[in-house]
Write a structure and sequence with these properties.
Pathway: Protein modification; protein ubiquitination. InterPro entries: E3_UB_ligase_RBR, IBR_dom, Rcat_RBR_RNF14, RNF14_RING-HC_Zfn, RWD_dom, TRIAD_supradom, UBQ-conjugating_enzyme/RWD, Znf_RING. Pfam families: IBR (PF01485), Rcat_RNF216 (PF26200), RWD (PF05773). Belongs to the RBR family. RNF14 subfamily. By secondary structure, the protein is α+β, with helices and mostly antiparallel strands. The chain has four domains: about 180 residues, Ubiquitin Conjugating Enzyme (Roll); about 80 residues, Herpes Virus-1; about 50 residues, no CATH class; about 55 residues, no CATH class. About 40% of the residues lie in helices and about 20% in strands. β7 and β8 form a beta hairpin. α10 crosses α12 and α11 crosses α12.
Length: about 475
């Protein structure tokens, strides 16, 4: 290697390193060479279109970045005075035929710049002229064959220009041209992931005004909502998310801008809040989503509460966790075609619902629970209401006892025990009246307390009349 070649190689490699960051240029350790990742310039509103067989409709995506062309090169000892760099050119979204055309153009550039360094010319050509040189315009179409492999990548509206270069399928393939993704699904994923990552890097370097704290923050300290693109600083959003999650409002993590309906995605929430709060958010979000599904309910057993998927038109649910089979209507053990049996606390709810709904609603309730069950429930509820107003329970056996007249010493018709009507205390069988004669008793001298003596009042009034 001549000293002049060595000096020019070092100068060129240093120039490349000054243009690209560590991700864009990786210099080889054992040889004069390296790897350069070159992103092509895209026009505004550039789109890609994924098309396949006639059965599936094409998918269209708007992007700002495409995965880079990767130039792996090695500078030979007599470069640039005699030999050209040895290289391979790879890409995830160009076919091998298109890469072969680019390799041919790189060779031509070397011939045109013979005995001069050529890497910068190659980089400039690949960055600025790749799309027009291959007659690629928006939308960029990724065509796949029936085997799921990338067949070709071309522009839909460029058939005339395509004839001017050569048929891609007939162009001789160059061994230096490498298409490093085989699956068409892999191509789409690589393009979308790279575009998102590059947009995030661009966002991180810009300054934005937070409309919550009204401070200017770098993009790396900010976050934008995917739908509306409104930007707020992470500190404000973190506090906002934490308050909403603690209050259980996991469906209300909207953009703080007035009248904006954009919602934060789970990945954004996870980035800002602690693991404990995110676990609560994830659980409540799943629960709220299941609550909106008509064919999903929870296992009635309080020790389980697992979500249960109901079959269409069936009233039986089988919990996948505890295997409990229950009725979807009354939450009791499954009873096939028999009417639902209501618990005591459900009777009042059924009565209110039955009285409030219209005729169609009543028929639906009668169909669900049975007319006789509803009539019986209504009768029992009326009886219950009457007993609560006109009777008291025996302190021993809880039998409902009605008091019509007489003193406050009562005898239960069920257990035959004595009790006080005023304080519901059980009385001694041997001396039931001792409760009213004991000065320490709360009912002392109240054996006849709160008793209306209507007949006596009438008798006294008659005597008064006679005296007059």
């Amino acid at each position: 290697m001549s000293s002049k070649d060595k000096e020019e190689q070092e100068d060129e490699l240093l120039a490349v390193a000054s243009i690209y960051d560590e991700d864009g240029f990786k210099r080889a350790e054992s040889a004069q060479g390296g790897e350069i990742s070159i992103c092509v310039d895209l026009p505004a509103a550039f789109k890609i279109l994924v098309s396949g067989d006639e059965k599936n409709e094409p998918l269209e995506y708007s992007i700002s970045f495409l995965p880079p062309l990767v130039l792996n090169f090695e500078l030979l000892p007599d470069y640039p005075s005699t030999s050209a760099p040895q290289y391979t050119l790879s890409c995830k979204w160009l076919s091998q035929s298109q890469l072969s055309i680019l390799c041919s153009r790189l060779d031509n550039l070397w011939e045109e710049n013979h005995r001069n360094v050529v890497l910068f010319s190659w980089m400039q050509f690949l960055k600025e002229e790749t799309l027009p040189f291959l007659f690629i315009k928006s939308p960029l179409e990724i065509q796949i064959n029936n085997k799921g492999r990338v067949d070709s990548i071309l522009s839909i509206n460029k058939k005339k220009e395509q004839d001017e270069i050569q048929d891609l399928k007939e162009f001789p393939l160059d061994q230096r041209a490498v298409q490093d993704v085989e699956s068409w699904a892999g191509v789409l994923r690589e393009i979308l992931d790279f575009d998102q990552n590059q947009q995030q890097k661009t966002f991180n370097r810009k300054m934005f005004m937070c409309n919550i704290c009204f401070c200017e923050k770098l993009g790396i300290d900010s976050m934008y909502f995917k739908e509306c693109k409104h930007v707020h600083c992470k500190a404000c959003l973190k506090e906002y998310f934490e308050i909403q999650i603690r209050d259980g409002n996991v469906q209300c993590l909207n953009c703080p801008e007035p009248k904006c309906a954009s919602v934060a995605i789970p990945a954004q929430v996870k980035e800002l809040v602690k693991d404990e709060l995110f676990a609560r958010y994830d659980r409540l979000l799943l629960q709220s989503s299941l609550d909106l599904m008509a064919d999903v309910m929870y296992c009635p057993r309080t020790s389980c509460q697992s979500p249960v998927m109901l079959e269409l038109g069936s009233t039986m649910g089988v919990c996948p966790g505890c295997r409990y089979a229950f009725c979807a209507r009354c939450k009791m053990t499954y009873h096939a075609v028999s009417p639902c049996k209501l618990k005591a606390e459900k009777l009042a709810e059924l009565q209110d619902e039955y009285l409030q709904v219209d005729e169609a609603g009543r028929k639906l309730l009668e169909q669900r629970y049975g007319r006789r069950v509803i009539e019986k429930a209504m009768e029992e509820l009326h009886s219950q209401e009457w007993l609560e107003k006109n009777s008291k329970p025996c302190p021993r056996c809880c039998t409902a006892i009605q008091k019509e007249n007489g003193c406050n010493k009562m005898m239960c018709t069920g257990c035959k025990g004595y009790f006080c009507w005023l304080c519901l205390t059980s009385l001694s069988r041997a001396n039931p009246y001792g409760h009213y004669s004991d000065p320490l008793s709360p009912c002392f001298n109240e054996l006849f307390q709160r008793i209306e003596f209507e007949e006596e009042d009438d008798f006294l009034s008659d005597e008064d009349d006679e005296i007059d």
